[in-house]
Design goal:
The complex is a heterodimer of chains A (113) and B (114). Chain A is built from no helices and 11 strands. Chain A has 113 residues and is an all-beta fold. In chain A, the strands form 2 sheets. In chain A, strands 2, 4, 5, 6, 9, 10 and 11 form a 7-stranded mixed beta sheet that branches. Chain A is globular. Chain B is 0% helix and 53% strand. In chain B, strands 2, 5, 6, 10, 11 and 12 form a 6-stranded mixed beta sheet that branches. Chain B is built from no helices and 12 strands. Chain B is mostly beta strands. Classes of the chains: A mainly beta (113), B mainly beta (114). Chains A and B meet through strand 4, strand 5, strand 9 and strand 10 of A and strand 5, strand 6, strand 10 and strand 11 of B.
Chain lengths: 113, 114
């Protein structure tokens, strides 16, 4: 079974631009979660999508948004990029419930200049 | 609010020595507990998890963890450290009432000294 894939793996943007990251979950998984990882803040939860609906949301500004498609693939968008948005963005997929293991992709490394 | 505390952001052990990484959580409902490992420039890989049943959980690569409800702890251990165990380790908690939202600890960087 193929794992979680994320594209692109690396991205360089400048302040004020917007960016879209993509995540393809493991086949059969309906839940997709997004995390931001930085050296200072660690792993922070952004949001979770389940069956095309946002089920949980972390404490991030509205510049961070996401969506999920009918095939469970998910995209995350960040508008008006700031220097502090530089981070590793991780996507994780799971079957459905809180007891299910989340399987992580390799991440997208975003650098904002 | 849910919180996860990992005591010791950096732990060093000698090769062959016991590995002990600490994790404490706060939860008002029965939690689901996970340990993940992250190697440089990679995503997170599940080591083990506790959902229900036996409180001593065995995972991959010789790691195990014990859920102690009275101490709200889920410490990770390995009897004998190997050089390949050097990595970042994260404890995570989810709750049945929160969908599939994980709360992560700040991580512990494990160094293995030859």
């Amino acid at each position: 079974k193929a794992g979680v894939t994320q594209t692109p793996r690396y991205l360089i943007k400048t302040r004020g631009q917007q960016v879209t990251l993509s995540c393809s979950p493991i086949s059969g998984h309906r839940s997709v979660s997004w995390y931001q990882q930085t050296p200072g803040q660690g792993l922070q939860f952004l949001f979770e999508y389940f069956s095309e609906t946002q089920r949980n949301k972390g404490n991030f500004p509205g510049r961070f948004s996401g969506r999920q498609f009918s095939n469970s693939r998910s995209e995350m968008n960040v508008s008006t990029l700031e220097l502090g948005d530089s981070a590793l963005y991780l996507c994780a997929s799971s079957l459905a419930s809180a007891a299910d293991t989340q399987y992580f992709g390799p991440g997208t490394r975003l650098t904002v200049l | 609010a849910q919180s996860v505390t990992q005591l010791g952001s950096h732990v060093s052990v000698s090769e062959g020595a016991l590995v002990l990484l600490r994790c404490n959580y706060s939860s008002s409902v029965p939690p689901y507990l996970f340990w993940y490992v992250q190697y440089p420039n990679q995503g997170l890989q599940l080591l083990l998890k506790y959902t229900t049943g036996a409180t001593l959980v065995k995972g991959i690569n010789g790691f195990e963890a014990e859920f102690k409800k009275s101490e709200t702890s889920f410490h990770l251990t390995k009897p004998s450290a190997h050089m390949s165990d050097a990595a970042e380790y994260f404890c995570a908690v989810s709750e049945s009432v929160s969908g599939n939202q994980f709360y992560f600890g700040t991580g512990t960087s494990l160094t293995v000294i030859p």
